[in-house]
Amino acid sequence: MSGSVVLVSGVSRHLGSAMARRLAADPSVARVVGVDVVPPREDIGGAEFVRADIRNPIISKVLAQSGADTVVHMGVIATPLQAGGRVTMKEINVIGTMQLLAACQRSTTVSRLIVKSTASVYGAGPKDPAKFTEDTEPRSQPQSGWGKDSVEVEGYVRGFARRRPDVTVTTLRFANVLGPVVETAMTAYFSLPAIPTVLGYDARLQFVHEDDMLECLRLAATSERPGTFNVAGDGVLMLSQAVRLAGRLDVAVPSALVGLVGGWFRRAGITDFSPEQVRFLTFGRCLDTSRLTEIFGFTPAYTTRETFEAFVDTRLGGGVLDRDRITDAEQRLVRLLGREPQEVAGG
What we know:
The chain is α/β, with parallel strands linked by helices.
């Protein structure tokens, strides 16, 4: 049987399952092995599932037994809410990556490594450029959370690439992902009936549709496309525009009180409103994707605005806030912010 053998980490979550399913349907792929600590909740098509923790050295044995020539590393978590706590999140992201890279380094079969990273590595601040290229040095280095973990992950990946120059390494820095199914801090944020924004700021945002993310990863996993690439839908959406399209209430919060509101979000278990998230929603972040188009050879099918509109149509009822869908926690949030969702207009 000809074709590549692909190992995908993190298949218990939606994007990992969808990636395994997509690769299993690719005629150039002979076999897909999905790895995670718990079985996938979604269908993974013709892929095989192996229960294993990438934080454990046992992953070396799994990789060797699979005979994988391609590794797609999606076993990273973006928020403490998803991981069950910040300590566990960091262990999975950083320690898990270290163990997986160590296994790849010892492997005699691996020839291609694809890493799902994030634009959060650039941080967010008042002195940022209009658009980040892949070579731009961050002016506001992320100090915590997903962004900080991803900086460490990319550092380990660069070290691996130096030690194994025979392996094609592709790092994809994705803008915030939205779509009909994926759950992220941004999908939770824009699903709130009253959306807190930072008074006096209107962040510039970019998004990537989950289907575009998966297709970009598939291309990297099935062809030689080495390098680091920004991935985002074309165009820019202002935060104020996004709130209006979502049909939500925009509640401007003085910067001095944002931390208190963020703490309430976390305690209520609604969404992760971390300091890094606050900086992003204050200053925004936009990416230069010319390298993706010209060198990698991929143009996302959805623009940033089309990505957001697709999210609104499938997840938010077309931008109209339905009172019956407001949870008890969200009602408490509305009361806390001193606003009622009685005059919410459609998109």
